[in-house]
Amino acid sequence: MLELGGKYCRKYPDGSKKVCMDKDVSPGSDYCLSYSFGVGNDFSFDRAMIKYGCEVYAFDQDKFHSHYPSVVDGVQYIKIRLGKERLMMYKLQPDGSMFKFTYRPLDDIQRGLEHQNVTLDYLKMDIEGAEWDIFSESI
Q1: Model's pTM, two decimal places?
Q2: Which of 4, 10, 49, 79 stands the most exposed, by the fewest C-beta atoms within 10 Å?
Q3: What residues form DSSP beta bridges with 55?
């Protein structure tokens, strides 16, 4: 197991993820694809995956992410959320404006990126407790 990414917050590590790099399960040397859902403001795991030769796509969406560019430190950044189904939700913001959240299931995202026939080597989800719902209903 290799611990990748993360930073310290109030003297405690936060955001790092453990990844199995055993020879029989790690990606081959030809190509590696990583999806990272729920990045928040921490791209450290995603940058670490790039160092291992992976093509990395990070996904998250809220009003704070609206100014992020489509590429952050070599990571392809897409402003959508992982969901059980295709869904648009609107939330009233404190300033009175409405913010639109876009949810897509994994297979829809893969199709949109033309990855439906590509092995997804690493799938990282940090989506505030919705991980098991997503697994049981759409993956």
Answers
A1: 0.81
A2: 10
A3: 33
Q: What are phi and psi of 25, to 5 degrees?
A: -125, -15
Closest CA to 126 of 53, 71, 46: 46
**137 CB-side CA count, 13 A:** 12
**CA separation for the pair 114, 6 (Å, rounded):** 29
Nearest CA among 60, 100, 109 for reference residue 80? 60
User: Per residue, what are the HEC states of 45-77?
Assistant: HHHHHHHCCCEEEEECCCHHHCCCCCEECCEEE
Summarised one tens digit per residue, pLDDT across range 108-131 is 999 999 999 998 988 888 777 777
CA–CA distance from 82 to each of 28, 95, 130 (Å)? 26, 26, 9
- pLDDT tens, position by position, 27-86: 666 788 999 998 888 888 898 888 888 899 999 987 777 777 788 788 999 999 998 889
